[in-house]
Design brief:
11% helix; single chain; mainly beta
């Protein structure tokens, strides 16, 4: 597939010709505004993150005092102050799997998952570790957002603790159409949304302009 020109209309962005999203494109697409000082870290919080047992990292406490851990190769990119504020708004007791949307009421950063329009330039590519292609939009930029999605699961070996699966600035997405948990809502969501091209790593040999799913 020929190289893609990433023409972002937002001031300060330059055209990026690439078959593989470059570090500069990822940096710009993942840019976050500074965390606002009127959202202080919860009172009495230790200096997280803390290195814990079994290679895990303790990242904070939920609103009901549950200890939360993350893996060394984390699936989130939130700064610690924002992450601590997210945890302080989530109740985990008695919940084995938690998928939570936390609304802050004002802008906290940029989301790289945006609604798309017929005139947008769309491509598909598979991300590392994924079993199917993701829909990307080339001619758009990350957009201001006031919410965070966080997903947790109860730890089998430590039922009194939870593991952070992922956390990101944005709204609640549906599973991608190739996912085993995909539904009719998944197809509708991903027919009208996409990730910003350059916001994450992809496998260049999988890039295509042809939709690989039945929508």
């Amino acid at each position: 597939m020929p190289a893609i020109t990433h023409n972002c209309p937002q001031k300060g962005y330059k055209s990026i010709r690439t078959n593989q999203p470059c570090a500069e494109a990822r940096r710009r697409a993942n840019r976050q505004v500074k965390f606002r000082p009127h959202w202080p870290q919860p009172a009495g919080s230790p200096d997280y993150p803390l290195v814990a047992e079994n290679g895990l990292i303790e990242i904070g406490l939920s609103s009901d005092g549950r200890r939360v851990f993350d893996r060394p190769r984390s699936h989130h990119k939130l700064e610690q102050r924002l992450l601590s504020s997210v945890l302080s708004r989530v109740r985990l007791t008695g919940r084995r799997f938690v998928r939570e949307l936390i609304e802050f009421g004002s802008e906290i950063g940029l989301t790289t998952c945006v609604a798309t329009f017929p005139e947008d330039q769309i491509v598909y590519a598979r991300r590392p570790g994924r079993f199917g292609a993701t829909r990307f939009v080339v001619n758009r930029c990350a957009e201001p957002c006031s919410s965070v999605v966080a997903i947790f699961k109860q730890m089998e070996e430590r039922p009194d603790c939870h593991l952070l699966i992922t956390a990101f600035i944005g709204g609640l997405p549906e599973p991608e159409p190739w996912d085993r948990n995909a539904t009719a809502a998944s197809h509708d969501f991903w027919a009208n949304h996409a990730l910003i091209w350059g916001s994450c790593e992809v496998l260049p040999e999988t890039q295509t302009s042809d939709c690989p799913w039945k929508l």
